[in-house]
Amino acid sequence: MNTDGWLEGGLLTLLLLIGFGLGWVAGKLLGIRMPNAYATTVLLIVGSLGGPAVTYHFLGPGMLSYSLALLLAGLTAGLAFWPMGEKQGEREWL
Prior knowledge:
Blueprint: H1 3-30, H2 37-59, H3 63-81
Helix pairs in contact: 1-3, 2-3
């Protein structure tokens, strides 16, 4: 068993969750809501594909690149999903 692999995997998972939490809190505090499902889909694609593409392009393969990519992916997911925590009837399109 490779301990370094488990530590890296744990760190990357933690960064994804931290990004999600930051996106959730920022979205709620700033009142950011996507206007429709299409905008949410674009946001999620940009975060999950665009973030890794940009970090890989500028930083190359490595832990820093992967860490920032997962932080960005979590951030965009948190921004997209925070309205789902609101009570039914207070939501817009969700």
